[in-house]
Design goal:
The protein is an alpha+beta fold. The protein has a single domain, classed as 3-Layer(aba) Sandwich (Aminopeptidase). It contains seven helices and eight strands. It has an eight-stranded mixed β-sheet with strand order 1-2-3-5-6-8-7-4. InterPro entries: Acyl_CoA_acyltransferase.
Amino acid sequence: MQPGPAFHIKLYTSAELLSQPWLPDLTSMVNASYRVSHTSKIKFPEDKIRLSSDSQLSKEIGPDGFTAVALVDSGPDHKPEVIGTASLKKWTDDGLWEPCNEAGNDIDSVVAELADEVNEDMDHVLEKHACLGDYEVAVVALPPDPRYRGRGIAGHLVRACEEEVLRRHRVEDRHLSSPVRIMIRVAKEDTGAYWLKQGFSILGSRKCAIGVWNALEEFTMWAMIFIVLMYLLL
């Protein structure tokens, strides 16, 4: 396989993203990526759209989020080519996850119920069904082009986001022992195995009905976590 073109990664806040000349290209790339990536394991509509407008990604990540974009220079008189993106936004959790074992299998409901009855601390019981985190990885996408697949670009983009979170925490003078909890929500049957290989661990799961994420069939959603330590920047 021939190596693809050289690329560099830049970070943008939600406000900065809106002013980039290649933003429509990023929107088109994300939608093309999701149409290809989300068809092999779980059935989705062939016309599935992840971003309905050029401003949607900026709105999703919010003022505290940011986006990493992989770019290939096209010369001084041309805008760069967008060949990948990953974003981080503040994690929000509804606390409705089912507890999982390390293999990602749901804990038997009868066993879980008995455990809840023994434990009289309601706060502790509720915490078992919550997945606590700090940031969430969102909208990771590469073009449906063999030149860019299998090169580790997605991993580089996610790492760039993690490093930016750590940099921000250092600026805020956070204690070095304070970990940053990076979360991601994935369809187990679709990309669960990939994110396990990237070092994420499973915190919880839930059964999702037809229509969630526009899926045409039921699937299992995993909440996954990756712990990043402050001292890794030193």
